[in-house]
Amino acid sequence: MGEWNHTASQTLAARSGTCRNKANLFVALVRARQIPEGFSLLHVRGQEYLGPIVPVRLHKYRGHRSLHIYPGVFIDNPWIHCDPTDDRRFAEATVHVNPQSHLVEWDGVHDAVLSLDPVYIPDRHGPMERSDDV
Residue 22: CA atoms inside 13 Å, Cβ hemisphere, count? Predict the structure, then answer.
């Protein structure tokens, strides 16, 4: 949650950001290494997914449908999706109330995406070249 329009350098300097901001940073880093990359988009039923971890006073701000953007890389033919959105601190602080936010670590070979229950994902798109395309 928060401002979506930060550049990769702003996200790096802040050392935090939304899913889109972190995806932009990840893509900038792999582009610098000339690795083919892209963005994927999920429409997420945000009220259900985020429900357990959002304080009651903020419930009125949760959207029925939220966008979630995450990057992927194209290595040795298959797309490998790697979502840097949830960091260790967030995962460890919320997993006891929201099992979907358990820590996911990327090994560089297999998909590493958030453990969203498929029932909370009405549709998905991607990979796309730019996060603005989503």
Answer: 17
Give me 93's structure tokens. 């602080």
Domains of the chain, by residue range, sit at: 8-133
DSSP state of 3: -
Judge contact between 26 and 82, C-beta under 8 A.
Answer: yes
Which residue is listed with tokens 């959002």? Answer: 54
Per-residue pLDDT tens listing for the chain (134 residues): 567 678 899 999 998 888 899 999 999 999 999 999 999 988 887 766 666 666 677 666 666 777 889 999 998 878 899 999 888 888 898 888 877 788 888 888 899 988 887 888 888 888 877 666 55
Cis, bond preceding 71 (omega within 30 deg of 0)? no
Q: In one letter, which amino acid is 117?
A: D
